[in-house]
Amino acid sequence: MIKWLDGCHSNQLMWAYDYIKRRDEIRYTWTPSSNEDMKSVIVAVYDLIPENKKKKFFENFRHAWNVKKSKERKKEKKCSPIGKRCAS
Questions:
Q1: How far apart are CA 20 and CA 14, in angstroms?
Q2: CA 38 from centroid of its chain's CA atoms
Q3: Whole-angstrom distance, CA of residue 50 vs CA of residue 53
Q4: 5 in Cβ contact with 16 (< 8 Å)
Q5: What is the pLDDT of residues 26-61, one digit of tens each?
Q6: Which of 2, 3, 23, 32 keeps 20 to 30 A from 60, CA to CA?
Q7: Long-range contacts of 10-16 (CB under 8 A, 24+ apart)
Q8: How far is CA 25 from CA 38, 41, 50, in A?
């Protein structure tokens, strides 16, 4: 389904869950209490999105993740060597 989404990394699952939660077209009332629950929400969203909108939704989903990772890499490059604080 979402090969680039690694269920073992809680930060990635939390980001994906938050991304889905912010979407106007997706409404639900259940709040996940574990990584497995978050993964279930993501799978459920995938199943509930109409076929004609699925591809575009996940293109945007993946693009947003790539932007996040790119920003993190740029921030890491600005940091000093190990043991030093990042420049503000």
A1: 10
A2: 11
A3: 5
A4: yes
A5: 666 677 888 888 888 888 888 888 899 888 988 888
A6: 32
A7: 10/35, 12/65, 13/38, 13/39, 13/42, 14/38, 15/65, 15/68, 16/42, 16/61, 16/65
A8: 18, 15, 11
- Between CA 29 and CA 23 the distance in angstroms is 14
* Integer Cα distance of 42 and 65 in angstroms: 14
Q: Which tokens go with 18?
A: 């938050």
Which pTM was predicted?
0.65
Tokens of 33: 């209490």
Reported as type and span, the H/E element at residue 22 is: helix 10-22
The one-letter amino acid at 44: A
